[in-house]
Amino acid sequence: MLKKYRYIIYTGSFDENIGGIIVLHSLCDRLNSQGEKAFIWPCCYDLNGGREFKTFYKFNTPLIDQKVNLEEYIVIYPEIINGNPLVAPNVVRWFLNRPGELTGNIDYGDNELYFYHTVQFNDETINPNQSNRLYVQYFRSDIYEQTNFGKRTGSCYILRKGKQRGIYLNLHRSDSVLLDGLSHKECADIFNRVKYCISYDLYTAYSRYAVVCGCISIVIPSPSLSKLQWRPDETYRYGIAYGFDDIKYACNTRDKVIENLNVHNEERVKKDIASFINKTQSFFVKTYKTFEELSLESSSVIDESIYNKIKFDNYKIVVFGASKSMSHTLSQLSYYNITVDFVVDNDEEKIGTTINGYLVMSPYDIFFEYSENHHYIVFIASMFFKEISRSIIHYSGIDSIYRIHFDHSITKIYDVTNSYENKELV
Hints:
This protein is an alpha/beta fold. The protein has eleven helices and 17 strands. The chain has a seven-stranded mixed β-sheet. Strands 2-1-3-4-5 form a five-stranded parallel β-sheet, with helices on one face. Strands 7-6-8-9-10 form a five-stranded parallel β-sheet.
């Protein structure tokens, strides 16, 4: 009889507005509904530090006792997690986006098993096995439905990951409503009011939600992707125009969207879950990470040289970005008993407010006013780390700039000792 492994899904706190988080929690629920034993391991959270880790009341997603023997578990990391934070011997990587697309780097280990969510997210150089699909969905049918069958006016638009595409984000009308940051209920109300929904994000469930609510849903194309390359499986293209000249196709296939969501997708999910269980249980009986491999993957997020520089060289520590990423950066620094001296942000609405117990200040006030008396190490808590770095490296007091990723890895963006003359980013 084969050894029976349990499952750990390594993920962040549940957030109804983040698709990757939703499907990771949903995977845990689905595995438990199939009789497996699956648990959530909270990523980037210190549960003893008073921060609440959220789960979804409709999902069976118990939190793991972190003292368990990991040899008895298969750990599932999303593709954004580099390295092996749990030093787990049995690792699955689940590609919820193209590997490296969101992090800029890929650092996976040996003897791992790879699955992709949908085919456009697979990287065949890493995972040549096209049959390793793991499609999981959770459609909010309790919120998204068409209630307006009459007149519609205006439009809404979605940025989300589209902000990272490097394209002009001005193809919507000036009076178009931005959906980013709104609740599902607010989005559903807007979808039932406007005629068009324009998405700069190539892959977001909101484009399909718009269709279900009666909108004409349009995705701004990528110059490097044909329609077939964008969505190889036509069932994912139903009801959505790939560019403004594709609206006729979207209207003609709109009725297929609801049928596909309610019937075909559910059948696909069940089939993929069953295949996933079978493949993972069989694979790790024969394949696992050796002690030597685990030793190489167990590096700390902050190495000794960075730590000594921060703790013993009398630098002031600055976190740049009063955003959602700020909590993660603060928790990582707190883990190493590194005290943050200042929090800064460019947003005038945030400057002067108190967030997470820190007074948010302007970068000018810190780096210019006090630069003669202090030297700074900056940790950027924002996806716009390159732009922020370029905007502050001219200040003379900045020694180095780092970014802590959600996978616990750390990237050095700038060091004053490297090309000090022209202040170029490393």
